[in-house]
Specification:
Layout (H helix, E strand, L loop, with lengths): L1 H5 L2 H19 L5 E10 L13 E6 L3 H6 L5 E4 L13 E2 L4 E6 L6 E2 L4 E6 L4 E7 L7 E9 L14 E7 L5 E10 L9 H30 L1
Parallel strand pairs: 3-4
Antiparallel strand pairs: 1-2, 1-11, 2-5, 3-7, 5-6, 7-8, 8-9, 9-10, 10-11
Helix pairs in contact: 2-4
């Protein structure tokens, strides 16, 4: 059977093209995900919190981080530093990167914040994001944290494509808390196959069309006879 298969030029061409295209498609990396959030409410209506209203935040999660956490059980966390942190489970997983870019308009314009450590996880309350600075005493002082809630009637994974709301905190123990934010994903172009994969698939299509024309021509000749 295998000998007959490989002795058939048409089947051999199709198989090579399909295998090549699938390999290239599988090799295409997942895209990192960028989100934008805006503080729309300061829960305690304190005058010293007023400057935080309409604060914009933008951050990017590394490849696969969102999907991994969204599909996990509560109390699952990923971090890019030693997980010896009193609020996290002992089995927190260390990965090369969690948040690759973090910016906010705390200074008036969207400016990057140097990331020393980031955490992304899932709890009973929602998706949890935290940016920390290990150099500020006490160790691992909070720079920004938020817990995102799923849209009504939808799972937390919907936050990948839908607007989600949640609570936020800026700063450490003496920081700003009780904030409400609204987060939306940044629209990115749909991923497309690698050029070589697209060529391979196009080649398969052209080959099949050519075979179909030959078959129809042969049938027409037989009918005429």
């Amino acid at each position: 059977m295998s000998k007959l298969f490989w002795n058939s030029p048409g089947l051999k061409v199709i198989s090579i093209a399909v295998v090549s295209s699938m390999a290239m498609l599988n090799a295409t990396p997942a895209s990192a995900i960028t989100f934008k959030a805006t503080i729309y409410e300061t829960q305690y209506n304190l005058p010293e919190f007023d400057f935080l209203e309409d604060l914009e935040i933008e951050y990017t999660l590394a490849d696969g981080i969102f999907d991994t956490i969204a599909a996990s059980e509560p109390d699952t966390f990923l971090t890019d530093r030693d997980p010896l942190f009193y609020e996290l489970p002992d089995d927190t997983t260390v990965v090369p990167e969690v948040v690759t870019d973090f910016q906010w308009t705390l200074g008036g314009t969207l400016e990057p914040v140097e990331i020393e450590r980031s955490i992304f996880g899932i709890t009973d309350q929602g998706l949890y994001l935290q940016i920390l600075d290990p150099e500020l005493p006490p160790q691992y002082t909070n720079v920004f944290s938020t817990t995102l809630e799923a849209p009504e009637g939808m799972p937390l994974s919907a936050c990948k494509t839908q607007t989600c709301e949640g609570t936020a905190r800026i700063g450490g123990k003496e920081g700003y808390y009780g904030l409400r934010l609204r987060q939306t994903p940044v629209n990115e172009p749909e991923p497309v196959p690698e050029p070589s994969a697209a060529v391979a698939l196009g080649f398969v299509g052209a080959f099949l069309m050519k075979r179909r024309r030959k078959t129809l021509s042969a049938q027409a000749v037989q009918t005429a006879d």
